[in-house]
Amino acid sequence: MASHRLRLTPSADTAVGDLRGRPAADWSRLEPELKAQGCRAAGYRLLAADGTWSSSCCKHLYGQWRVISSFEPGIVWVIAVAEHDGPEFYKRLSDELGIAGVGRGREQKPACCGEAGWPTIGTTRAGRAITSVSQPAEALRASVGAAEHRLMTQAVSP
Fold first, then answer.
1. Which residue segments constitute the domains of the chain, with CATH numbers given?
2. CB-based contact 8:83 (threshold 8 Å)
3. pTM of the predicted model, to two decimals?
4. Are 72 and 39 a contacting pair, CB within 8 Å?
5. What does the pLDDT look like over 80-116, one tens digit per residue?
């Protein structure tokens, strides 16, 4: 039985419905993993526009496809599913979600989940000085940008 509810923003739901071939097959495998494992299945933390780690995580699907997610207790929010088409990909994320327009090398990115099972905030995987958010829902709401909040409060798929 799933321990997390999966919620998709309208744009993510549309993008998932449009996936074909190997990206669609990868999504079909990732969906139950997100429901069962939450942030442990969500890849790595993304850099925020201000240089700190954002509240969003990125998981690679086949090829250049990416799943961008965020979390509340018991809920995985899939906020974007898109093809990484170069700088425009991060420009859109920056405009819509407050994600940095320039990323970091994978070895410099912290895992999405901290040791306590909640998304990490703070230093990189190499430093392993990762802290857990003590009040996750409040911290998430405080850290998300206005656009992400708008996306999360719009009608979502069940």
1. 5-153 (3.30.2310.20)
2. no
3. 0.72
4. no
5. 999 988 778 778 878 877 777 666 565 677 888 877 6
